[in-house]
From TrEMBL:
<dbReference type="Pfam" id="PF00990">
    <property type="entry name" value="GGDEF"/>
</dbReference>
<dbReference type="InterPro" id="IPR050469">
    <property type="entry name" value="Diguanylate_Cyclase"/>
</dbReference>
<dbReference type="GO" id="GO:0005886">
    <property type="term" value="C:plasma membrane"/>
</dbReference>
<dbReference type="InterPro" id="IPR029787">
    <property type="entry name" value="Nucleotide_cyclase"/>
</dbReference>
<feature type="coiled-coil region">
    <location>
        <begin position="147"/>
        <end position="174"/>
    </location>
</feature>
<dbReference type="InterPro" id="IPR000160">
    <property type="entry name" value="GGDEF_dom"/>
</dbReference>
<feature type="domain" description="GGDEF">
    <location>
        <begin position="202"/>
        <end position="335"/>
    </location>
</feature>
<dbReference type="GO" id="GO:0043709">
    <property type="term" value="P:cell adhesion involved in single-species biofilm formation"/>
</dbReference>
<protein>
    <recommendedName>
        <fullName>diguanylate cyclase</fullName>
        <ecNumber>2.7.7.65</ecNumber>
    </recommendedName>
</protein>
<dbReference type="GO" id="GO:0052621">
    <property type="term" value="F:diguanylate cyclase activity"/>
</dbReference>
<dbReference type="InterPro" id="IPR043128">
    <property type="entry name" value="Rev_trsase/Diguanyl_cyclase"/>
</dbReference>
<keyword id="KW-0175">Coiled coil</keyword>
<dbReference type="GO" id="GO:1902201">
    <property type="term" value="P:negative regulation of bacterial-type flagellum-dependent cell motility"/>
</dbReference>
Length: 335
């Protein structure tokens, strides 16, 4: 959704609302969002999917609108960053209340028009013309005021969504952070290692871990479930990290943990604690049904040797991770 002016938003809604009524589309926030963007024509692919769905089904079901809303109007970062997700849910709730009020007000206007028609159908309608005109005037004025308030509400939500997107873009442009999890990315990890290695001896350890069978999870449970799993693991690693530890997401379901003042034996023990804890977790869908029975991860653990470069240390730990995968997954390898 875009930060349109009240006049622009009103012009778009004047086209979107009749389309929704013609298609008998429920006035939900998701539907309003999709049809607003459809009329605005900012996403050709969205419009193509809407047209194809209508051509195939004769309408646009609400569950399809919800999927399209998440796919085209809400970025993945907004869906899974907790702070932004809370704000987004609040915006959806605001629009929901506004659309419900608008629906009620339209029904009131329809009632006014219906009663006026009944009066005008009587034989003595001339006696009531002034009253009908006054009645219609009051009803239409109220409807215009309600429509104006609704337009303001939509414009405000548009502005807030635009601000939310700007914040997410700023996060995405931070070269050291992973936009999905807010952990360090690989470049941020390398910067940390460059700053730590000169003062370390043999007590700097690196854990590289990877979610096992993530590709299969994406296929069996949808990519959204896989993304939710990545974010869930990221939160666990961040919440259970040790003092002076650095957590990073390298790519996909692969993470790294830098442990200062940690021998190889200590790092292996810590990796086992994390692996056991993750194995006990259950990721559930919103309706409470189990999605992923347990979370399995493989670890590669390496401790720095001399003045080893960050690239070499990462390569060694990644090689040990590969060994853990080949040995059967859901295990730890340190050589």
């Amino acid at each position: 959704m875009h930060a349109d002016s009240p006049r622009q938003a009103n012009a778009i809604l004047k086209k979107a609302v009749p389309l929704m009524r013609k298609m008998d589309v429920a006035p939900t926030p998701y539907n309003y969002g999709i049809w607003y963007e459809y009329v605005r024509q900012t996403s050709p692919k969205l419009n193509q999917l809407v047209d194809a769905t209508i051509g195939r089904l004769g309408s646009l079901p609400s569950f399809v609108s919800k999927e399209l809303f998440h796919q085209f109007l809400v970025s993945e970062e907004a869906r899974f960053n907790s702070e932004h997700k809370d704000r987004l849910e609040a915006l959806v709730q605001d629009v929901s209340l506004s659309t419900q009020d608008m629906k009620t007000n339209l029904q009131s206007l329809e009632s006014v028009v219906s009663k006026s028609r009944k009066v005008l159908s009587r034989a003595d309608r001339d006696k009531h013309l002034d009253r009908v005109v006054s009645f219609l005037d009051q009803g239409t004025q109220k409807a215009l005021q309600d429509a104006e308030q609704f337009t303001k509400d939509i414009s405000r939500v548009n502005r807030e969504v635009a601000q939310l997107k700007a914040e997410l873009e700023e996060i995405r442009n931070n070269v050291d952070l992973d936009p999905l999890t807010q952990l360090f990315n690989q470049k941020g990890l390398e910067r940390q290692l460059y700053s730590l290695i000169p003062s370390s001896e043999d007590d700097l350890s690196l854990l590289i871990l990877d979610i096992d069978h993530l590709k299969r999870i994406n296929i069996n449970h949808s990519r959204r479930a896989g993304t939710a799993l990545i974010c869930y693991v990221a939160r666990i690693l961040q919440n259970r990290k040790l003092e002076n530890a650095t957590v990073a997401r390298l790519s996909g379901g692969t993470f790294a943990i830098v442990l200062q003042d940690a021998t190889l034996d200590f790092a292996i023990e810590y990796a086992e604690i994390l692996r056991t804890h993750l194995n006990k977790q259950r990721l559930k869908s919103r309706n409470g049904a189990g999605v992923i029975d347990n979370i399995q991860v493989s670890f590669g653990v390496a401790t720095i040797i001399g003045q080893e470069t960050p690239a070499n240390l990462i390569a060694r730990a990644t090689g040990y991770l590969d060994n853990a995968k080949r040995a059967g997954r859901n295990r730890i390898a340190s050589r």
